[in-house]
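Hello,

Following up on my earlier ticket. Below are the two sequence lines again, exactly as submitted.
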Amino acid sequence: MSGSAVNPIRARGIRKSFGALEVLKGVDLDLAKGEVLCILGPSGSGKSTLLRCINHLERPDGGMIEFNGVPVGYRLSGDAFHELPEREIQKQRAAMGMVFQRFNLFPHLTARQNIMEAPRRVLRLSAAEASQRAERLMKQVGLAEKIDTYPGALSGGQQQRVAIARALAMEPSVMLFDEPTSALDPELVGEVLDVMRSLADSHAMSMIVVTHEIGFARSVADRVMFMDGGVVVEQGKPQDVLVNPEHERTRTFLRRILE
Amino acid sequence: MVMTNKQAGVPSVLTDEQLASARLLPRRQSWTWVAAVAVILVLANALYSILTNPGFGWPVVAEYFFSPQVMAGLVTTLMLTAISMTLSLVLGIIVAVSAASSNPVLSSVAKGYIWIFRAIPLLVQIIFWYNLAALYPRLGLGIPFMPSFVEVDTNSVITAISAAIIAMSLNEGAYMAEIVRSGLNSVDSGQREASRALGMSSWDSFRRIVMPQAMRVIIPPTGNETLSMLKYTSLVSVIALPDLLYSTQLISSRNFEVIPMLLVASLWYLIVSTILMIIQSGIERHFARSVVRP
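Thanks for your patience. The regenerated structure is below:
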């Protein structure tokens, strides 16, 4: 409610189950403006689900998420939260960028068209404006010469960079990265991390990055959060959590990943 | 082990020079030629017989090929095919989306529709719709269980042509729904998810992202269905609708040239089918463009 002091993202007590499997068991999360938060954890620890709850791709079973001081997907009326109509949720999602593990570029559209699509349909930009924006962003991710190429003719690393450009085209205030380098061949990971690093260095973007890249987390993250079994085990500065973790579970995980 | 040693131990009788400069000849394909000659002989014989047997009546075929009555029949056939196919595609999309809907009533009704209309023969459906007036003499439009706003005499609405279009669209719609469903299922769920994450509406996501990709799977069987539809229109002769087949039959009932008039119809079906196949391959190329690497 109160202007600049508010954290872009504030989640409290997030719970989510798929059938009998409880994936999130009451998770709290805060993201400050311009902060880069890296979430680490073994697969199945609920980190991707948490990310998908934040932009309401998944509906949490319990708890509430605030985005720029406003509940995500709900409106408080009296003493209860009422689910918003789809149109309103779309507006909230449009202000959060998301990058997927498997890129999910639209294969029937060129890189330029991939980037232009949502600004045209959602922000109602003119074709010329959207195209200009696509050119600027493709330059930013270092792929200016590939702008009229179909995703099928791009490498995995290039596809992921286009996917980042596509998310940035909506001028989001928060970027959510869901294991952005996990599906890439090892030699292509660096170019994607470089794009993310320069985005972080600009300090204009608040970012949550679910990742297994310890090196990236150590050098770029302002804060690291370790999740296991649907709960946050510990969080803090990267040098603390990654170098001198307090919990045995964190130590075991880091040892396994660094082997 | 023994084999390997033995093979490795045999000294080659060929020099390096002989191996490097080997002259290579492909295997002789003698049976290819035998089969080709046999097939050509059979075809030549058939063609000779078709051209020389007076029963085929080629002069009669030529005389009636462009006659106004045949042309009118051809136009009726093309129109029935085009309208029914368009309506069934729209219907198929609506039914496929409904069947996949999370609303249990909507999805059950859609599945029930597919079940019934695929089960009953098209010929039966055509005759049924043509005789609708026997069941409902008057048709009205209004809210269920309330008096209608407008009401008309059934026989003024259900003519031979509208009965044919309704029957064929409803029947084909059930098949198209299954084709569209398989197309929609072929699109990766990440595509819908990515468009939702960008804030796109479900309608925009369906129209701009999912459907264009589903088309690649939908088009080949739809081309097949269009060809089937073109030929199924000949069933409308049972309700005395003068399509291509029925018009040629009307002529042969006067001039008794049964075979030549069937040839007229067959040749036109062949021509139209060929054009449809060419159009189909063009459309397929259009929707495959992103898969072809530049």
